[in-house]
Amino acid sequence: MTKARVVDGDVGQPRAVELSNNDKPLESRRLAGIVLKNSLDAKDAARKEHLVQQWVAIDISIKSKIKELLLSTLGSSASEARHTSAQVIAKIASIEIPRKEWPELIGLLLVNMTQQDRPASLKQATLETLGYVCEEISHQDLVQDEVNSVLTAVVQGMNVTEHSPEVRLAATKALYNALDFAQSNFENEMERNYIMKVVCETTVAKEADIRQVAFECLVSIASTYYDVLEPYMQTIFELTLKAVKGDEEVVALQAIEFWSSICDEEIELQDYDYAENGDSSPQHSHFIEKALPSLVPMLLETLLKQEEDQDEDDTTWNVSMAGGTCLGLVARTVGDAIVPLVMPFVEANISKTDWRSREAATYAFGSILEGPSVEKLAPMVNGGLDFLLNAMKDENSHVKDTTAWTLSRIFELLHTPSTGFSVIAPENLQRIVGGYEDAGPSSSLLTPYLPDIITCLIATADRMDGGDSKLRSSAYETLNEVVRCSNLAETSYIITQLLPVIMNKLGQTVELQILSSDDREKQGDLQALLCGVLQVIIQKLSSTDETKAVILQAADQIMVLFLKVFACRSSTVHEEAMLAIGALAYATGPEFGKYMSEFYKYLEMGLQNFEEYQVCSISVGVVGDTCRALDEKILPYCDGIMTLLLKDLSSSELHRSVKPPIFSCFGDVALAIGEHFEKYLPYAIPMMQGAAEICARMDNSDEEMVEYGNQLRRSILEAYSGILQGFKNSKPDLMLPHAAHLLQDDSVTKAAVAVLGDLADALGSNVKALLKDLVFCSEFLAECLRSDDEQLKETATWTQGMIGHVFAASG
Fold it and tell me: Using H for helix, E for strand and C for coil, what is the string for 751-786?
């Protein structure tokens, strides 16, 4: 570890001194601040915890001196030094305030705001610091009096008559970060009115950057305090209308985003399950429905503000795109009611000579296809399909692109032959390029045209300009969908013929002459796409016994190609080749064993690839695939595999998302090798129990961590399930000491109910004593049996039967 990454008395204090010294060069002060900030925080959770503990361990007198220097730097004449100091103070606050170790910080900062003689630059830096602190800590870390004082200082800082633009901008940004803290204040009508008055006034400030942040505050308020917005909506509508029609783009974008946020809230309210929540259902104010006659025309007008080059950059986001996205959300919110408001705009503009009008009309139509009923949209789709197909030959690329997008949405959202509405008919089939249906066992209209479609897609992928605008990847992704959705009974001979074509193309990439890093990148991109196509073909042909023989016959050649691809050392190719090999292992079953000696070294490399963690995660999945394919034939490789999996779990460098699949993989290994897994129990079980304990201590207020905790619990239960089943026929008693620990976790329903059944099945009468006193188990199963999830009910029924069998057999 370098000295620059360590905070201690020998390093942290000199950095703070350097930052606070007005006589030092600005660049060295800035670098000192960055080094100090980076020594307090890191993106990786394990690394961050290590840095936190380092800071906590520093002598309190040294920490006090560092904090004193940082607070004094807020008064520096150099804006960069003030800015950096504000960030570092917030990082320290994120460590100390939750521990109640810097209780005076908020008060010290507020003094800067309340003393009349303090310069504007200090007030600006103080507000910036307050904003960063609010961003870093939880709203539970401050008492209400502190929250009130912070909000008072921030809102007063937004006052146009008292402060400079720099102070007001910092105050508005601080309010944005402090809104989560204002729950009690928004419940008080007088305080809420004052905050909303100041925010609304700030949306018409002279400075565009202040107006932008003020609208960002409104966006946040829309999602956080939707239920109290009713008295302010008319004013907000007028403000957003003015901004969208005539303000600078950055401001207009936020004004549109306000209405998108309102839509998000109302869509969520409509999806809310009132039956399960009794009388506590949240308030639905129907803001979108009430604003519809004025809101829709405002959004339609934005569609005409396209940029000439907007299709050339995937990162482009402008008023036209934002307006169309919002229009789509409005359609999902109000359903059929939007159609009569949009269709006159479509009809008035669709045939105009100006490309902007034609593109806007098409975009408007495509945007409202999700939300309204099929019955409402069907006449428009039937009447407009020929027009849209003709528009695919429009002279303007923007119009063609939006038309293709609209056609794809028609097929994605409305084309449902099973319910009686089909866009495809024999008379229009030849003109339709993008739509394709999975006809299941019945005959597909598209089958006769499949060879021509595949030929055209491959020719498109081979074009010299295929690398531009993702044309090549789009062609191959479409080819994948064509193969994936085809009726295999009718198209097996076509897909069988496609297999050697793709194999030949992949073989040619290995022979390409590589003269530069650009050549290597292009080779890797193409190999990734072709491996992806092979994966889909393997999965498709191996789905029936009749066509699996094609894969078994070609497996040796396919595997040789994949091994050659691995030799290219490209992480992207590695990823795609790994996925394809997983499919091949599933298809070939025990026969895959003959490839393991050569493949294993690449599997090892994948399991050790911490930096490109997606590759590591996919490699873990392939271990599961090979275990299921080989069963006990995987045994010679298990010592190496388990060593690497345990090492991955212990690593603080590996991304946390890889760890749940590793626990699931333990179950796959145990299921494959049965009683031979016994030697790994002393290492695997403590890891599983340790992870379960971490889950129990997770912060339930963090939605992301809650989701991760559920993934972790589910995977741990899957591991237990595989181990129990693996030991069932030989050594079931090995798991008896761990059964009580296992039954403590009821958080992930499907996996938990399955593992209860596995416990009863594997341990037999031994499980009776464990279950008889656990009221949770019977209540849990009863709840699962009442679920609407058929799979869950089926599993719960099986588990109930297994437990009942055990109790009946043992009397």
Answer: HHHHHHHHHHHHHHHHHHHHHCCCHHHHHHHHHHHC
Note the helical H segments in 486-595: 488-510, 517-541, 545-566, 571-588
Q: What is the pLDDT of residue 709?
A: 82
Residues 121 and 82: beta-carbon distance below 8 Å = yes
Name the token pair of 139: 């709203």
User: Which amino acid belongs to residue 338?
Assistant: I
The amino acid at 629? A
Question: Measured between alpha carbons, how far is 418 from 165 in angstroms, rounded to an integer?
Answer: 61
764: left (phi over 0), alpha (psi -120 to 50) or beta: left
Do 12 and 70 form a contact (C-beta atoms < 8 A)? no
The number of angstroms, rounded, from the C-alpha of 520 to the middle of its chain's C-alpha atoms is 30
pLDDT at 167 over 70: yes
Q: What are phi and psi of 711, to 5 degrees?
A: -60, -45
Please, what sign has the CA dihedral across residues 750, 751, 752, 758?
Answer: positive
pLDDT single digits (tens) 70-90: 898 898 888 888 888 999 999
The model's pTM is 0.63
**Tokens matching residue 377:** 């949209």
Alpha-carbon gap, residue 660 to 682, rounded angstroms: 19
Number of other CB atoms surrounding residue 523 within 10 Å = 19
Please give the Cα distance from 501 to 796 (Å, whole number): 47
* Residue that the structure tokens 């603080």 belong to: 652
- CA-CA distance, 36 to 29, in Å (whole number)? 11
Cα–Cα dist 125/643, whole Å: 52
Residue 170: φ, ψ to 5°:
-60, -40
> Which pair of tokens denotes residue 464?
């010299």
CA distance 533 to 724: 37
Q: 10 Å Cβ neighbour count for 305?
A: 17
Going by pLDDT thresholds of 50, 70 and 90, the confidence category of residue 212 is very high
CA atoms of 468 and 495, how far apart (whole Å): 28
Taking alpha carbons only, the member of 313, 323, 197 closest to residue 249 is 323
Q: What local confidence, expressed as pLDDT, does residue 767 receive?
A: 65
Q: Is the pLDDT of residue 793 over 90?
A: no
Backbone angles phi and psi of 304, in degrees to 5: -85, 5
